Amino acid sequence: MPIKKGVRRLPTTLILTLLLALLSAGAVCAAPTGAPGMAAAGEQRPAAMSARISGPVAVYVAPGAAVAATLATRTEFGSPQTVAVVERRGRWLAVTTSALPNGQIGWIDARAAGLSLRRIDVAVAIDRSRHLLTLERGGKVVRRIAVGIGRAGSPTPIGHFAVTDEISGERYGSYYGCCIIALSAHQPNLPVGWTGGNRIAIHGTNVPASIGVASSAGCLHATDRDLRYLMARLPLGTPVTIHP
Q: Is pTM, for the whole model, over 0.85?
């Protein structure tokens, strides 16, 4: 690149001396170490990619380590199996999947047959304390949505998850409203006698008063209008972060 007029190059030795001084003073920060995809403040960066699975794929507990699960081509609800990619290390992809417990990252081999990668430019953040869902595109807020959350004893789990399925609520009953957006999250604190499964979802409701309060078994309730908006804009594999 041409040097602008009036700007002098610093000698290479002087540049190195300055860099060493900054490093010793702690002014230059290295990338934080720790769990895959984690930022300095403990927040996981939103997934930039998703991976569509079109053949059985093994999920490892760490690159090249033991197999933790095997992903089929379809989810338990019949959707195309899609996982959020939160980090890449060479041929290894760190992924968020419902096949693993909340908070556990799995690893898949990018060379495995049947993988199709796709860039994701949207992300969802849910603030339990404010009963608020925020949709972002390209880092900018495009919509804020009031949601109901889990009640005391069966709270909505916090952490980093992803959209796994988008289903018609009519398949399961009027209490799910128009739509169900299933997440990779699980409910570890099911109410006594609960028989509806342990997966967390964002879905509609036939009790409008449950929106904006803590009243569910862990799922997030929203209006049909907001859910149709989300269904049209959230691809499978969209990262979802739930804050306290």
A: no
